[in-house]
């Protein structure tokens, strides 16, 4: 690997662009390649074997594009496949896990909520992590249907609003003071979530922590791009309609439909 090679990212769809934005903000000198496997979204309803297969497929595409480091910008893929990826490929991987630790350390009510996919909440890695916080009441909620609506561009739809009320109200009633977003799609729902839950409840996602960890691993492996550059190359590929991803990443970048 050489330090001018790009950082690779993949997700089951467009949600991981929330991670890409944090990485790009912290490391603006780095080239990036983002894969949205929207054709197979959501990963959260798939078997572990399917998730590992798709994660390897995405990894190999990024390796063929000379990625120097890969961010698994998907909680479900991280919790189900990252051990397999790290043992199969000789490249640094950054995973995305629900940020339970800061919520558990700072809760005053000793009750926190986590909104995540079924694949994340049922994973062995997630259950290993929550064992550390047995003194905290952790309320788990599967966000059935949320990823699908985001992938369709229905962020502000009535159906989305109904589902969010259905999932969040019981957590509020159980006195949570932290809400952990355990899916990279969910940060795009923060404006709607804030309208439903009290302002005293803090919302936590993993984006900034992932960006900091990416920088740390690049530094440790001497892979930071230190070249003076006037132009940085950011590529976005999706194997379904690019319309929703284009809206999320903005007009400065181009989402391209591509089979992979």
Shape annotation: globular
Strand content: 15-25%
Helix and strand run: EHEHEHEHEHHEHHEHEHEHE
Described by strand count, sense and barrel closure, the largest sheet is: 6 strands, parallel
Distance between the termini: 23 Å
Report the mean per-residue pLDDT as an integer: 96
Helix content: 40-55%
User: What structural category do the secondary elements indicate?
Assistant: alpha/beta
What's the β-strand tally?
10
Major sheet: order of its strands?
4-3-1-2-9-10
Number of helices in the DSSP assignment:
11
Radius of gyration from the alpha-carbon trace, in angstroms: 18 Å
Low-confidence stretches: none
Can you walk me through this structure?
It is a single chain. The strands form two sheets. A six-stranded parallel beta sheet has the order 4-3-1-2-9-10, with helices on both faces. Strands 6-5-7-8 form a four-stranded parallel beta sheet, with helices on both faces. Helix content is 42%, strand content 17%. It has 260 residues and is an alpha/beta fold. The protein has helices at residues 17-26, 48-64, 75-88, 100-106, 118-121, 124-130, 146-151, 158-173, 190-196, 207-220, 243-249, and strands at 7-11, 32-36, 69-72, 93-94, 111-116, 137-142, 178-182, 202-204, 234-238, 255-257.
What's the short version?
The chain has 260 residues and is an alpha/beta fold. The chain has helices at 17-26, 48-64, 75-88, 100-106, 118-121, 124-130, 146-151, 158-173, 190-196, 207-220, 243-249, and strands at 7-11, 32-36, 69-72, 93-94, 111-116, 137-142, 178-182, 202-204, 234-238, 255-257.
């Amino acid at each position: 690997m050489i330090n001018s090679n790009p950082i690779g990212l993949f997700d089951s769809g467009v949600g991981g662009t929330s991670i890409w934005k944090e990485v790009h903000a912290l490391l603006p000198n780095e080239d990036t390649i983002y894969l949205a496997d929207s054709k197979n979204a959501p990963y959260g309803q798939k078997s572990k074997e399917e998730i590992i297969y798709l994660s390897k497929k995405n990894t190999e595409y990024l390796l063929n594009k000379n990625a120097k480091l890969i961010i698994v910008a998907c909680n479900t893929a991280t919790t189900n496949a990252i051990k397999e990826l790290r043992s199969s490929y000789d490249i640094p991987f950054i995973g995305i896990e629900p940020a339970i630790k800061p919520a558990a350390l700072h809760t005053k009510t000793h009750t926190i909520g986590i909104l995540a996919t079924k694949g994340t909440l049922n994973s062995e890695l997630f259950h290993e992590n929550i064992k550390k916080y047995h003194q905290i009441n952790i309320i788990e909620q599967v966000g059935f249907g949320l990823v699908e609506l985001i992938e369709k561009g229905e962020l502000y739809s009535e159906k989305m609003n109904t589902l969010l009320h259905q999932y969040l109200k019981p957590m509020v009633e159980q006195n949570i003071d932290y809400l952990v977003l355990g899916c990279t799609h969910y940060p795009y729902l923060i404006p709607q979530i804030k309208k439903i839950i009290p302002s005293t409840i803090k919302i936590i996602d993993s984006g900034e922590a992932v960006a900091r960890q990416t920088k740390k691993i690049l530094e440790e492996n001497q892979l930071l791009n230190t070249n003076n550059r006037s132009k940085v190359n950011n590529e976005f590929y999706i194997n379904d309609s690019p319309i929703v991803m284009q809206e999320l990443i903005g007009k400065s970048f181009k989402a391209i439909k591509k089979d992979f």
